[in-house]
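Hi L., both proteins are below.
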Amino acid sequence: MKDKIKIIEVGPRDGLQNEKKILDIQARLELIKKLADAGMKRIEVGAFVSSVWVPQMAESIELTREVLKLQAAGQFSKEIRFSCLVPNVRGMEDALKSGISEVAIFGACSETFSKKNINCSIAESFIRFRQVMEMAQYHKIKVRGYLSTAFGCPFEGRVNETRVVRLVRAMVKLGVFEVSIGDTIGVATPKQVESLLKKLRRMVNLNKIAMHFHDTRGTSLANVYASYNLGIRAFDSSVGGLGGCPYAKGASGNLATEDLVYMLKGMGIFLNIDIEKLIQIKKWAEEKLERELPSRVGKAGLPEKSTY
């Protein structure tokens, strides 16, 4: 089956920024090189945030410049799209200095989470977004949107679906090309995913939607399958299951890229991504981070005589 699936690798940013062990710029560049070699075509490489608050993302300008320099020199495929997170106008100014052509803004569906995570209300965050969007549009930079805590908040509990739909519509209206809907603390079930997406597709074209699942309670792949059956074709993942939400008790990290690729290939979907290389990246990252990563496929490996 040929079905155009987009996998957005968020390990170098969303994964590493929540790891206790801080990798230097050379290790982060090596991770990006390995992911590109494995066949990943969309990679989030860093975040233009304060190194005081997020030391894991220090030197993101230098890292991004080096990645783009290597791509210009032919060491990365021209097909690969690199992106970075920008929280505000200051972050967007750094993005312009780096030369990146795609950025992402980050908001929440829960007021409490928004205030604790990005230090402003949801309404205030959209004022920031508009400022960033104006700068991005002027400089012809593509903008992606993240909406976290779309299914549950560690402080407020279950999040109202109508609010999520309203915020997704608001982001699309701003001009983002894609909205990534996040199950930040890993509480969603397939029934919840189906319910939200059925409401959402009445208001927004689902080709503008990506899903971002965490595997805290082991439901991420089931949620991907439910999303796929309703027409979603873009999914965020993190090699090895890097990262996790610091507010989620027992969080085991993002959906592992190799787990996602294994399932999709097993469904007959064509993906030009090398799972064995992803498994090796997971092992490399474990050595660098000095901890075991939660990926199932990374632990078990591929079946004997596998055609994956």
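That was the first. Here is the second:
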Amino acid sequence: MMTSHDNTNDRPALRVYMTGGCDGSETLRAALASHPDVEFVGASEEIKDAAAALAGGHLQVVLHATRASSLPADELASIREHTRAPIVLVASGEASRLLDEALDADVSDVLLLPQLADNVVFALRKAAHTARRSDGVRGRQGTIITVFSPKGGTGKTVMATNLAAALVRVAGKKTLLLDLDLQFGDAAIMLGVEPEKTIFDLVVAPGELDSEKLSGYTTHHPCGLEILPAPLRPEDAELVTEAKLARLLEVARESYDAIVVDTSPFFHGPMLATLDRTDELFLLCGLDVPTLKNVKLALQTLEMLSFPRDRIRIVLNRANSKVGMKPSEVEDALGMKIRHHIPSDRAVPFGVNKGKPVVLYDEDSDFARALRELAKGVLPKPEAPKKRSLLRPLART
């Protein structure tokens, strides 16, 4: 379970997960867990036991303790299967070879124990700062919006397709709709397009994935939306691995202002890989007991995965339905406020059957108006430029 503390410096606490072990790592772990600048998500000596937290924790830094005297390449590779967060290594004893080899490796810093907790926190913050600055240098960093429901029939794909179309039409954003309901995805059908290529064709194609290659595999909707549909055959879903999906999302971030991800109702590998990169999670609920029960379980699972609660938006679909349950009862049951109320509207089934997003073909409908308002507020506002400060060099004890 994650532990958070009040931050006396008015800076957001760093989300840190610790893996591995070495002499002195237990002492460091205890110090970090109580440090006001750290939101200590958790720790595990075995990387395989940390897979869910690494993939779903939206981490800023991974602190890996190693007993190896040289670079633990296999351990680093295992971490990289689950997260792209910067890695800071800690070791004890004589580790000159480790220090030399780390210079050319995917490692942000190496610290030799013992160290003051404040020194380690400084190194962690520096690693996170450098990673953010590198992201900015790469250019466009699109917002990943994941639409999820732990139960079928809640209108998840309708929401994802209409939100993606609204981001193009209303917000003027270059948008990709990614259908990750890999076995039975319907996004292309609901948009009335017949794709020549799917995500399956992309991930099995030879060569390195980049922005140009990604663009060659998307299907273009007349409104300007680009779609990467689910595989045509359910058995092809197995080839969309977590590693390939992680790379796909990284490339998509550099190519689009917004990436809307439609998902299946399961916490499987592709979903965990997506959560690790999700900026906004739209969790759909309905006014019925089975859906409410599943959404509550989903929130518990997200907490176990240490997914940031402030990135979750509860969306009540068909919110005006008279079915014997009130929105306030949903909020009481979930312990969270409903962020968006989406009305039931006859225009929705008509749009589905016509293969036309309601936000495009029936702009005056209640559903379309609600989706336009949602789209306007979903992307982050540009930040005012901040004064840059110099970082102090790390002092070892």
